[in-house]
Design goal:
40% helix; five-stranded mixed sheet; 414 residues
């Protein structure tokens, strides 16, 4: 794990000693077991040491020693004793919400989100900025300002517990310039930028980077339906639709970090001499609803808020969901035949009401396919929503330092 720079702590004198690597660089089985215990509490909630020992297959003595160390480091707390049973009352052990913090940054094609996350996954502070076109100067200035404000909002001792920043953004913000109405000079600037290094330079905190839809998939994997579905295709409907692929409870990045790039799937059959078939992103992205609203002379940004299902936008949204649902159903069918998926999870930056309409359209369209010879997967709405990308980003530094399996999703920038 990267250490927080001394300059970031100079004002409060806090120590980052408690953020030492816990089993991440061959420091020994003791630190690995600490991660195992922390993960057991994170996934199962507070419990007494005896229950932790049974769950982790560690001895009661080992768990007791680990809990004492974690308690001294401020990573766990002891709750009120459980009384009413035979013998001494047992003391449940829980994660300390103030034990560690991380910051998640999502740079999108239409908005910026910055979240401050605590050790139990609660969002303590949030900031959002909407725009029609992402300007690098505006975006990075806002990020640096919000990180400073979030640091200032914490107590001095808590600031030293900020574990780092997880940044999520499309791999190519400069792509599809015409559709996005992105000026060539702005596109060129994004193409030259190393987002993680720029944020590090501006904030003094270590930064990990992930593709935005992969980060959203991480959030669903860790905090949503992914906790009960081992293999699934994840779709995130945003300005451009994208996705991620989880196999055996691990995010699969692929050779170029693009596994699950569902938006690039063709939605037709290519023919010699004919124009290439459209990609899924051209028919199932919120940009399509934006353009329909713009052509009708109504606010296109309603695609991202509750107005989308209200007059005068409702009719355009209904037409878009039918078109997008049919295209997504085709992609789901093809992916299932190839990957034998347990499930498909669909989420997005739209409202729940619009997502519900889209889910209905997908379900109706899936009925039109022949499922003989393949098991039809369950298709479910995601649980995180528009926060998914920033939340997934914020989880990266926490899991890098405190989760026992670093290969779950830490190779996203390969």
């Amino acid at each position: 794990m990267q250490e927080i720079s001394p300059s970031a702590l100079a004002d409060d004198g806090a120590s980052a000693e408690h953020l030492r690597p816990r089993g991440s660089n061959q420091t020994g089985m003791r630190q690995f077991n600490e991660r195992v215990v922390l993960q057991a509490i994170r996934l199962n909630g507070s419990m007494p040491k005896a229950d932790l020992a049974r769950l982790t297959a560690l001895s009661t003595q080992t768990v007791s020693l680990i809990i004492n160390r974690l308690y001294e480091d401020g990573l766990v707390i002891k709750l009120a004793p459980l009384r009413g049973k035979i013998g001494q009352p047992s003391v449940p052990i829980a994660l300390n919400p103030d034990g560690a913090f991380s910051i998640g940054v999502k740079i999108g094609r239409r908005s910026l989100d910055v979240l401050l996350l605590d050790f139990v996954g609660t969002v303590r502070m949030r900031f959002s900025l909407s725009y029609r076109v992402p300007d690098p100067d505006e975006v990075f200035t806002a990020i640096a300002r919000q990180v400073k404000l979030m640091q200032a909002a914490l107590e001095p001792a808590q600031r030293g517990r900020i574990n780092g920043i997880g940044a999520a953004a499309p791999l190519s913000l400069d792509r599809w310039q015409g559709l996005m109405k992105l000026a060539p000079d702005q596109a060129a600037r994004w193409n030259r930028l190393d987002i993680a290094r720029r944020i590090e330079a501006d904030t003094g905190l270590p930064v990990q980077f992930a593709k935005d839809t992969a980060a959203a998939c991480v959030a669903e994997l860790v905090a949503g339906r992914g906790r009960s579905i081992k293999s699934f295709l994840y779709l995130f409907v945003d300005t451009f639709i994208g996705g991620g692929l989880v196999i055996d409870s691990k995010l699969h990045a692929g050779l170029h970090g693009n596994a699950g790039a569902i938006g690039s799937l063709p939605v037709g059959v290519a023919a010699r001499g004919a124009e290439a078939p459209a990609q899924l992103l051209s028919t199932a992205s919120l940009l399509g609803l934006e353009l329909a609203c713009e052509q009708a002379g109504i606010d296109p940004m309603a695609a991202y808020d509750e107005r989308a299902t209200q007059a005068p936008w409702a009719g355009h949204s209904a037409a878009w969901t039918e078109q997008a649902g049919a295209a997504i159903a085709m992609a789901v069918t093809s992916a299932t035949c190839l990957l034998d998926l347990e499930g498909v999870i669909i989420d997005g930056s739209c409202t729940r009401a619009l997502l519900d309409q889209l889910m209905g359209a997908v379900a109706r369209s899936l009925e039109n396919y022949n499922w003989e010879g393949v098991e039809r997967p369950q298709v479910l709405a995601g649980m995180i929503g528009s926060d998914a990308r920033a939340l997934g980003g914020a989880l990266l530094p926490l899991y890098a330092s405190f989760a026992p399996d670093r290969d779950v999703f830490l190779k996203l920038d390969a």
